[in-house]
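User: Here's a protein and a ligand (zinc ion). What would the complex look like?
Assistant: Let me lay out the input and then the predicted complex.
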Amino acid sequence: MPASSRRDGLQAAFAGIDVGGTAIKIGIVDERQNVVGHQRVRTADYPTPAAAVEQVHRLVEQSLNTLGGLSLQAVGLASPGLMADHCLQETSNLGGWEGVRLRELIERTFGRPVAVVNDAVAAAVAEHHVRRIPSLCLITLGTGVGCGLIIDDRPFTGHSGFGGELGHVVVDARPDARLCPCGRPGHLEAYAGAGGVVQTAQERLQGAASRLATLPVHELTPEILFHAAEGGDAVALDVVAATAEKLAIAIAGVAHVLGPLTFLLGGAMTFGGARSAVGRGFMRSIRQQVERLSLREIHRHLSIDFSSLGNDAGVIGAALIARRSALGPDSLRTSP
Ligand SMILES: [Zn+2]
């Protein structure tokens, strides 16, 4: 229902909840898809998903009271992992939430219609909304590696709903390939997730002439690695290039299966993204490697760039999907 036609004079609003391994981000999104209220809590502070959802509900109510003039219509929840039957079936980064019937839990708590969606799909929906391009592949690089696909203006998750798991695509088939956090060998997440990037650094620092080699193992973090790369540390720059190489294998694979499309990289593990020389070098390496691996016509028609929405993408996308489920299937395509 358009805001102006509501009889109670209130504007329609939607809550987007983005559950990650570290934080739960909450946003109130208005009819024009502006995030008008922001909250954030630490995932580890809540012993169960039910306790976390209770607190999220309190914070949403608080935001709505503070903002005033808004009427909550629907709630969207985004989380990493495989979703089916409105339930998180399998995830490598959010153990305690597996098997919980999330939609029922949130519907009971909020008393509103609820949509539950993979977090990368939510972010892809948000990017699609902003960029107005019909097909895209959003890759989220953080603790894990997520992927959201939009094909012909619709989220695409395969016939089972389990498609798009780019983080668990094999990019190293050698017998001694590293184990992914999911326990299987050679997956992209084992190289391009935060833990994987740190492991690459640890391997390359053995006997290397780098300031980083003097750090105790537990002090080597993605942030320290990034700053070393910014300062020109050769090993750190080599790690950035090695990460780009593994991502390029996965991107070239998707481009050849689905046809060339727009790839967008987002999340905390983009080495500073477009704002940083290291991030721009990371992007240059990915593009060069994808070109090396791709048929000429595939490469000519694809583009790779950083995503534009940053940390808000999951929240906005979850709210857009909630809006779509509340207002009908065409609202993703036709929303203003
Ligand atoms: Zn895996």
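Summary: The pocket of zinc ion is lined by residues 168, 180, 182, 184, 187, 189 (CB under 6 Å).
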